[in-house]
Amino acid sequence: MTETGELMTATAQRCHDPYLRCAFYGAAQAALGVTGCCVLAHSPQGCYQLVGSAFGWQEADYTETFTLSTKLCEDEIVHGGEELLARTILEAQELKVSILFVFSSCGPEIVGDDIVAVCEDMRPQVDFEIVPIKCAGFRGDQNEGTDIALDAMLKKTGSPRWGENPRLGLSHRSPRQ
Amino acid sequence: MDDSRIAFKGTLEQLLEKVERGEMIPKLQASHAPPCKFWTAFQVINGIRHMVPVIHGPKGCTYSVAGAYKMRSCEYRGVPLEPTSCTAQDEADVVYGGEGKLLEAVKEADQRYHPDLIVIFSCCCSGIIGDDVETIAQIAEREVNAKVLAIRSEGFGGDFRSGYEDAFRMIMQLMEPTGEKMEKTINIIGAREGPTYTEWLQDLDEIERMVLAIGAKVNGILCGGCTVEQIRRAPAVELNASWCYDWGQKLGDLMEEWFSIPYARAGHPYGLKATEEWLMRIAVPLGLEEPAREMICKETKELTKEIDVLRQFFDGKTALVEITEFPGPIRALSLARMTKEFGAHPIVINIHPYTIKERMPSIKFLLQKGQNPEVILTKGLFSLGTFRSSWQTEVELEMIAAQYDNAVYLGNPRRQPGVPQVNLSTMSGYPHFGYHGIKNLARLTQSSMEHASRPRSKLFRKVRYGG
Fold first, then answer.
1. Domain of B232: which CATH number?
2. Are B381 and B5 within 8 A, CB to CB?
3. Quick one: pLDDT band at residue A161, thresholds 50, 70, 90?
4. Contact B90/A138, CB-based, under 8 Å?
5. What is the count of structural domains for chain B?
6. Using alpha carbons only, what angle is made at residue B17 by residues B12 and B22, rounded to the nearest 5 degrees?
7. Residue where one domain finishes, among candidates B158, B186, B202
8. Which A residues, 11 through 40, put their C-beta within 8 Å of a C-beta on chain B?
9. Same domain, yes or no, for B53 and B23?
10. Which of B100, B133, B158 corresponds to the end of one domain?
11. Which of A19, A43, A45, A103 to probe by mutation at the B interface, max B CB count within 10 Å?
12. How many CB pairs under 8 A join A and B?
């Protein structure tokens, strides 16, 4: 029988050797299951590597599914990166996708970049749907990130404006278990 | 050729000037996003044996670097899996601070793994909220058996170059100059990735083989599987030599400044001339000129057949070199030099301006050494999306190749430029460095000649590039 003391030690662990990635990765796994989408990581370059891993894991087709990053540096962390995000959303028009998922990572969420507001502001200027997903790594592990992304997608599909875009024909492949 | 698809055509020096003037800036996109500062700092420190990292951040950063730099070796090469530990920061830690948790994590790592060295890495979260990793490292060191160091490696804190430069600067804290000298001994610097399976292992092996063959000894490969003890006694060597000028430069310069250890500055040993130059830059300061000359003469003689193959393939040709993303831009320039040595006119395709900016010190060094090949950048390089695999760059490459009646292509075998192509991105073709490298490159060019007329799959091209 396990002693209570042993259980407490196990739960009080401070040094982790994780076997799961963070919420940001899980959200990318879910979003990249949408054929013909673009995932825009509002993050430094390192987090964008996670989107790349998720892209490979989903076996997405890079001739029709795209990934972008705002490549945040110290300037954006100190002075805010909302303007940079807005410019990148405008540039994403070149890709001719039907839906853009905007992800925020730890850095911009801690400094308070409001990706939801930026996406709402930019929506009239572009011809694709935009789904903001607040999925900073500190929000949980990758399973929680998948939940966060699916939750954001479901809420968006329920919005009144959904379906106005004639090019939007979403088909979602569930992430592999 | 349709010039409307060309964004830049000129020499490397002209491209550098444009980049320095702030021109050729790519869009705010991720078609060229190398790892952040945290990744490259980890890449260097991970090359120290019996080192345990304690990453002060969420699990994503940790698992990702572990996957990229540790698990790959373990999964494919059967080496034991080493820990990559972290504090697994969550929302509460971000709100209330995580210094206490970090201190406990360091103690726990020491008790659990008994390492020689613990390195604390800060990530975006801990960096922004202001957790003082350096002070925690000092406090922790008094309470654990291992040496504890900390590095500020927030991903947003710099580009990939700043990560490895800061990591090499940090390991200098482990060096202890005693005044003793290890005769005819060198450090090979600028290595990275892991103590288990180091990146470009075959190239490092060839360098080590050549160094030993001229009668010199190697103290350690910093940081490609070196020990803390090797780093400690690194200032006792007579000379530092880099396996990659770009990555080794900072440590070489710092050790020269702090410990007066000369640094043999040389580019990659691709081809006969560059290999000879690389060896002589080590041999002369060590007083091993004679054995080095004997070795060069002997090894060159043994390669008569291979050299003939390379001359036959390159002589009078236009060599299109497109390996600027993998195996790397500095290698692309070294390879261009090698093709020139064997009689070709090299053109480097799509070396990204972002790379030129980040690797400016190395690019300037190579220019000083007379490496100034022609460079062509296409519009596809600046488009959104993955330019390495885009339909635009594939078509543009085909157009460039068609412009010359004697072009050969060196790069990725997935490309279909319609001219003889040498596969330079499959790991089985390594080493590329030194004399063994010449053997491999000759084998690859021989294969290219033999299979030049084989038709490529149009279906594969469509599946891969769309279009």
1. 3.40.50.1980
2. no
3. low
4. yes
5. 3
6. 125
7. B158
8. 13-25
9. no
10. B158
11. A45
12. 173
Work out the widest C-alpha separation in chain A, in whole angstroms: 64
* One domain for residues B328 and B278: no
Q: Which residues of A touch B63 (CB under 8 A)?
A: 18-22, 25
- ipTM (interface predicted TM): 0.88
Give the side-chain half-sphere CA count within 13 A for A75.
6
Q: Which residue ranges form the domains of chain A, and what is each CATH number?
A: 20-157 (3.40.50.1980)
Q: Mean pLDDT in each 10-residue stretch from start to end of chain B (467 residues)?
A: 86 95 68 82 94 96 91 72 91 94 96 96 96 97 97 91 94 94 96 82 94 97 94 97 89 96 94 96 97 97 97 97 86 95 96 86 92 94 74 92 95 92 86 96 95 92 83
Residue B166 counted as domain residue: no
User: Which residues constitute the domain of residue B308?
Assistant: 3-30+304-465
Measured between CA atoms, how close is A160 to chain B, in angstroms?
Answer: 31
Q: What is the amino acid identity at position A72?
A: L
> Residue A71 in 3-state DSSP?
coil
CB contact under 8 A, A15 and B68: no
The angle at the Cα of B371, spanning B366 to B372, to the nearest 5 degrees, equals 115
Residue B277: name the closest of B256, B296, B253 by CA: B296
Residues from chain A contacting residue B88 (CB–CB below 8 Å)? 16, 18
Name the one residue in this structure whose structure tokens are 């659990």. Answer: B112
Question: Which structure tokens are listed for B85?
Answer: 């530990």
Mutate one of A93, A106, A113, A142 to test the B interface: name it (highest B CB count within 10 A): A106
- Please state the pTM of the whole predicted model: 0.92
Dihedral (CA of B267, B268, B273, B275) sign: positive
B322 and B458 in a single domain? The answer is: yes
Q: Chain B interface, mutation test: which of A15, A110, A111, most B Cβ atoms within 10 Å? A: A15
| Statement to judge: residues B313 and B257 lie in one domain | no
Cis peptide before B223 (omega within 30 of 0): yes
Q: Could you tell me if B74 lies within 8 Å of chain A, comparing CB atoms?
A: no
At residue A3 the predicted structure's pLDDT band, cuts being 50, 70 and 90, is very low
Q: Tokens 């572990």, residue?
A: B66
Q: Which of A46, A87, A94 sits opposite B36 (nearest CB)?
A: A46
Pair (B440, B293) in one structural domain = no
